[in-house]
Design a protein that fits this description.
The complex is a heterodimer of chains A (157) and B (695).
Chain A: E1 2-8, E2 11-17, H1 23-30, E3 49-52, E4 55-58, E5 71-73, H2 75-78, H3 82-94, H4 103-116, H5 122-129, H6 140-152
Parallel strand pairs in A: 1-5
Antiparallel strand pairs in A: 1-2, 3-4, 3-5
Helix pairs in contact in A: 3-6
Chain B: H1 13-17, E1 33-39, E2 45-51, E3 60-62, E4 87-88, E5 94-100, H2 103-112, E6 114-119, E7 129-137, E8 149-157, E9 169-175, E10 178-183, H3 188-199, E11 206-209, H4 223-238, E12 242-245, H5 248-254, E13 261-269, E14 275-287, H6 293-302, E15 312-321, H7 335-353, H8 357-364, H9 384-395, H10 397-403, E16 411-422, H11 428-433, E17 436-441, E18 447-450, H12 460-472, E19 479-480, H13 500-517, E20 524-529, E21 538-539, E22 544-545, E23 550-562, E24 569-579, H14 586-605, E25 611-612, E26 615-616, E27 634-640, H15 657-660, H16 662-674, E28 680-681, H17 685-694
Helix pairs in contact in B: 3-4, 6-7, 7-8, 7-16, 12-13, 14-16
The chains are: A alpha+beta (157), B alpha+beta (695).
């Protein structure tokens, strides 16, 4: 057990915990942030994606020890931003959501992509999403949603 | 009134995007216990002795001796124990549960359980037939005696894993003797009825509730009944809330998959290159329990002529029992295996005859009024001619086909034609399911949809509300569709077989029409029960009659490039044309089209799962490859309207149709690129290299 401090969705937090615990479990169990999903537990599917110092990471593969003094943003935090609103509109409008289990992770991946590259090509969008598995949509409508967000949110990223 | 096909935003999209939607693992209970499963370490044997570790206070084991009712999972064929008493029939078969408050401790205890077995010889060959079907049409295989030419091929298909992103899971709790189960499921009443039998209790003592579902694709049709029975037995014993969540590896190792199949085809051709008769034999691997494999086999056999009319048929098939993980429902339900085989066979016959495959197939295409493989009738208009023309035009099929015939080309284009029988096969809908729906009008004018249909991503929470609001001419916000809870909703049947919009939606539409007539009343309920159209009759014994009330039709065209060195396949583009009667929401149907095709195509070339002596070699998302965004081709889909009289607004089935044509279309495209005949899927680089090297 040790004390861990980090920024979570814009607020400083601290907790006493076992340093080997997965960030995913801490977020879901200790902070009830259940928008962060567990799909595979081995860093393949991206359903548990969060932003760590604005880099996308799979929270199932991050021990809580590595989060000391870092900045973590989950879908719950991201959903308070104006960029989120642009992406949400685009996802809804383009039919990018089916079962929804991959969707919070897809939103985080979309933010991460657009943050680094506000004008990605189709190929760059596909690469940007390639760490996030979706079994429902065949990805076409998610790609269209990101293209719509690029246009509608021009200047936001 | 606007056209119902006009897309609206899905009513549950916003809560899913924001992460607020609650899936089963997101539900919180105080003092919840965790159940983990002790599994067999051998594929076949007799349990001689089980030695449990000392269980600390508050920790429990749950096994066959705790089952108060019948120790068998209620599925179609009841041959799966809830917990085996003595015999183990596959590797990782569940034997008992360990339940307790600390998950890590439970895991430790699970690993300490020792089971002594007397091993028996497992069966992995397909020799032990547990179900055999045979039927004929016309003169059966008699035309073979006077055939001008006989052509035969053998085809093989592999496992496919549903790979829903949310693994299977349940939580449960008790109130007095009543057991409530909340789970990631497709069929609330399948679960409820299975649990009633397991507990030997009455209907009012079991309640099943659906939360948000993270994908299912058939994988959450019958498998959850096993988990639910085990959990219910534990709940009755322990009487505290219990959570039973599979992680990905457990889910992949033990849940049902698409049946591997071996399909033999023979065709008797006359002088004018017309098929007089087809003889076919289909074997599917049922795994250790038969469950619903017989129904999967039926659908495969009935689909044996594909989209074509063949006058004389001799059709047989078997479900084989092997000491492997039981196979089960997966979107398409036997049809994807058969469509791969028949579509390749039609192509291969044409190539062997040296005639144009499109013309050859067109000469056999089914028309309105033709007799189906089971001597039913295609009663409704078939508009495949114009759909095929459209598909070939938007894909530039003819020119590309010609261009890629160049021996130096490593590209290919392939096309599949298919239909999918909507709803249950045979008389299941009328004789077994007897679906019931209710609509309830509240004093304030809101209308509740009371059905057991589950939204697992296909959008039924949006589309059913759309149907009701449109008929009642009230805003969609005034129509409520809560998650199914068996204490509140009638049994409208399972969420399977592309039946939800056509059958359940059809009943809901009828109820809404009645409600409209009585709209001036303040608060009332309307109930409707399914009645089979009187002309639909099917004999389950002889496979004679109309196997389905309606058919959806489709065409897929796929274009690929195959790397000449690595034989890696890149899927470049996909074009589809579908007749689903009437789209209740165009964008939702197009979303189903994209996702179904992605699964169907990947089944054909990408998704590899196999076992060696009963040990699955792929057990997680790292080993079992499903398409990423990088693998996704651009997809263009065109919908044709061809309303079905008994569907709401003319709607027919959608979900499965969009999967069944993917594998043959991509396999034909790969075949053209590598200039070899493909008879096996998935067409992996290893297989392609072998074909090219061995000629």
């Amino acid at each position: 057990m040790a004390k861990i401090k980090f920024q979570l969705n814009g607020k400083p937090v601290s907790l006493e915990t076992d340093l080997n615990r997965r960030l995913l479990d801490v977020l879901r169990e200790d902070f009830s942030l259940t928008g962060v999903k567990e799909g595979c537990g081995e860093g393949e599917c991206g359903a548990c994606a969060v932003l760590l110092d604005h880099e996308i990471v799979n929270s199932c593969s991050v021990p809580i020890a590595n989060v000391m003094n870092k900045d973590i943003v989950t879908i719950e935090g991201y959903s308070t931003t104006s960029r989120y609103q642009v992406l949400r509109e685009a996802f809804e409008e383009e039919g990018a959501v089916q079962c929804g289990f991959c969707t919070p992770g897809m939103m985080i991946a979309s933010e991460s992509l657009l943050h680094k590259n506000p004008n990605p090509t189709d190929e760059e969008i596909k690469i940007g999403l390639s760490g996030n598995l979706c079994r429902c949509t065949g990805y076409n409508m998610i790609i269209k949603a990101i293209k719509r967000a690029m246009k509608d949110g021009d200047g936001k990223w | 009134m606007s056209d119902i096909s006009k897309s609206i935003r899905k009513t549950d999209a916003a809560e899913k995007i924001s992460g607020q939607a609650k899936y089963v693992a997101d539900l919180k209970f105080d003092h919840i216990l965790h159940a983990l499963t002790v599994r067999s370490r051998i594929p076949s044997g007799i349990i001689k002795n089980i030695i449990l570790p000392d269980l600390p206070n508050g920790y429990y084991s749950v096994d066959a001796s705790d089952v108060p009712g019948k120790n068998v999972v209620k599925i179609i064929l009841e041959d799966q124990p809830i917990f085996p008493k003595t015999e183990v029939t596959y590797l990782h078969e569940p034997i008992l549960l360990i339940v307790g408050p600390d998950k890590a401790k439970v895991k430790e205890l699970v690993n300490q359980v020792q089971i002594e077995y007397e091993e028996t010889t497992p069966v992995f060959e397909w020799v032990d037939s547990v179900i055999h079907y045979h039927f004929e049409k016309g003169d059966g295989s008699k035309p073979f005696t006077k055939a001008n030419r006989i052509i035969q091929y053998d085809y093989e298909t592999g496992y496919q894993e549903q790979a829903y992103i949310e693994p299977q899971g349940f939580v449960g709790y008790t109130e007095d003797e009543k057991v409530t189960l909340v789970g990631s499921i497709q069929c609330p009443y399948y679960v409820k009825n299975a649990v009633i039998q397991a507990l030997g209790t009455t209907e009012d003592q079991v309640r099943v509730i659906q939360p948000s579902i993270g994908g299912a694709f058939g994988g959450k049709e019958e498998f959850p009944s096993l988990m639910a029975c085990q959990l219910a037995v534990a709940l009755r014993k322990i009487k505290q809330p219990i959570s039973m969540m599979y992680d990905r590896e457990e889910d992949m190792l033990v849940t049902t998959k698409r049946h591997p199949a071996k399909i033999h085809f023979e065709a008797a051709l006359d002088e004018s290159n017309h098929i007089q008769s087809i003889r076919t034999n289909v074997g599917i691997d049922g795994g250790a329990n038969t469950g619903l494999s017989g129904v999967v086999l039926s659908r495969a056999l009935i689909a044996c002529t594909g989209a074509y009319t063949i006058d004389h048929l001799d059709v047989s098939g078997d479900v084989f029992r092997t000491n492997t993980v039981p196979n089960g429902a997966f979107r398409g339900f036997g049809a994807p295996q058969m469509y791969f085989a028949i579509e390749m066979f039609m192509e291969h016959i044409a190539l062997d005859l040296g005639v144009d495959p499109v013309t050859f197939r067109h000469n056999h295409l089914a028309k309105q009024g033709d007799h189906t493989s089971t001597n039913g009738t295609f009663r409704d208009p078939i508009i495949m001619d114009e759909m095929i023309e459209k598909a070939m035009e938007i894909s530039d099929f003819k020119a590309k086909r010609k261009l890629y015939d160049d021996p130096k080309s490593n590209r290919g284009i392939g096309m599949s034609w298919f239909f999918h029988g909507c709803g249950f096969t045979g008389s299941g809908e009328a004789n077994i399911i007897k679906a019931k729906v209710r609509l309830h009008k509240e004093k304030d004018g809101t209308v509740q949809i009371l059905v057991a249909a589950v939204d697992m991503g296909q959008g039924i929470r949006t589309t059913l509300r759309k149907v009701v609001s449109q008929i009642l001419e009230i805003p969609i916000q005034q129509v409520v569709f809560d998650f199914p809870d068996t204490d509140k909703v009638p049994d409208s049947g399972p969420t399977v077989a592309s039946r939800t919009m056509m059958i359940v939606g059809g009943l809901v539409a009828r109820a809404a029409k009645t409600m409209k007539e009585r709209w001036q009343e303040t608060s009332f309920t309307v109930e409707k029960q399914y009645e089979q159209p009187s002309y639909i009759k099917f004999d389950e014994e002889t496979f004679q009659g109309d196997a389905y009330p309606a058919y959806s039709w489709g065409i897929n065209i796929l274009e690929v490039e195959v790397d000449p060195v690595t034989y890696q396949v890149s899927v470049l583009h996909a074009w589809s044309v579908y007749d689903v009667g009437k789209a209740i929401d165009e964008r939702i149907v197009l979303g189903q089209a994209d996702g179904g095709l992605a699964q169907g195509v990947a089944y054909g070339y990408l998704e590899v799962m196999r076992h060696e002596s009963g040990v699955l070699k792929q057990k997680n998302m790292t080993d079992y490859i499903i398409p990423t965004a990088m693998d996704a081709p651009t997809m263009e889909t065109v919908l044709y309207e061809n309303p079905y009289a008994y569907g709401p607004y003319g709607a027919k089935g959608v979900g499965e149709l969009t999967l069944v044509g993917g594998a043959p279309a991509v396999a034909q495209a790969i075949e053209q690129a590598v200039k070899q005949r493909i008879t096996k899927i998935p067409a992996t680089p290893e297989y392609l290299m072998e074909l090219v090297n061995n000629g």
